[in-house]
Amino acid sequence: MRRPKRSESSSIPTASTGDIAFLLLVFFMTTTIFNNELGLQIVLPEKGETVKVKSSSIAHVYVARDGSVKIEGKNVPIDKIEDTAIDLLTKGHTVKADTNLIFSMKTSRFCKYGVMITVFDNLKKAFNTLNVPEKISLKPSPISEEF
Which residues form the signal peptide (predicted)? Predict the structure, then answer.
């Protein structure tokens, strides 16, 4: 007569599964690095006394909902923003730039973010081309205001 084989149980012990899961969780939480989104790199001036600025020292830049750009009331294609800004900074002179000129940039709240960044970068390029400290003021336009 044959003896019945004793079958071994094929189960996995689960007594320490919770401990292992907890240790893995702690391990991944301590070793994971989260990338911080830096956003726009803007150096803000230190707090000081308020200075009155002449209206002639401000160049207004408007970015409309549809992505069109106006500088001092004139429509400017995006690829010509840097040249227009350089012309305003130099006022037609090739020798010295006007270091007092401030670009006041207003954007529609419905404008695409990429367009605003492109305009901002082109204005910064104009300042960097002339080796002039950047003076750009960023302001969102009110919801009711459309350009």
Answer: none
